[in-house]
Amino acid sequence: MNGGEVQFALEEAAHKCGYVRDKGMPAARAAIRSAKRGGTKEPRPIPPDIIQDELDAAEGAVMKQRMRQGRDGVTVDEETGEVIHDPARAKPVTSNFAFPEHLTHVPGLVGEITKWITGTARQPCRVPSLAATGTLLGTVLYTLTGPDARRQGR
User: Fold this and answer.
1) What would the DSSP string read from start to end of the chain?
2) What are the boundaries of each domain within the chain?
């Protein structure tokens, strides 16, 4: 992004968060200028995890440039000749395990929450809905009865 795009994005953010409504556009622009001066005087270092993410992305881009896919669908690393993917040799991922549907129909609050989660999901599936219900209720119970709740007299 160039300087103008950054300025525009910051002003737009000031509008969206209500800063311009509360303080006015001149105050928003003054705050942006002040932050820019402060950041220029004492720039913060880029966190190491962000640097690593950028390095990984750059390495991935280089790797992608080296890959070549033939008409047969085989993907080859042009530099090393290594076959990365061969659809003729690839085995489909399958599972013979199916969670018994009747075990996802439980009575009481757990069943009602599971039914609600499944009913409002974009892709309804009772097993993850039941797991989410367990996580939700476990969190609520821990909040109400865990060590912090005892200290606070709940």
Assistant:
1) --HHHHHHHHHHHHHHTTHHHHH-HHHHHHHHHHHHHHHHHSPPPPPHHHHHHHHHHHHHHHHHHHEEE-TTS-EEETTT--EEE-TTTPPPP-------GGGG---HHHHHHHHHHHHH-SS--HHHHHHHHHHHHHHHHHHHHSHHHHHTT-
2) 3-41, 48-85, 101-151
3-state secondary structure 123-139: CCCHHHHHHHHHHHHHH
Pairing of strands 75-77, 83-85: antiparallel
The residues pairing with 85 across neighbouring beta strands, listed in sequence order, are 75
* C-alpha to C-alpha distance for 152 and 154, rounded to whole angstroms: 6
- The residue type found at 31 is A
pLDDT tens readout for residues 82-92 = 988 888 888 77
What are the residues facing 131 on neighbouring strands?
none
* 21-71: pLDDT as tens digits: 999 999 999 999 998 888 888 888 888 888 888 888 888 888 888 888 888
Q: At what angle do helices 108-120 and 126-145 cross, to 10 degrees?
A: 130
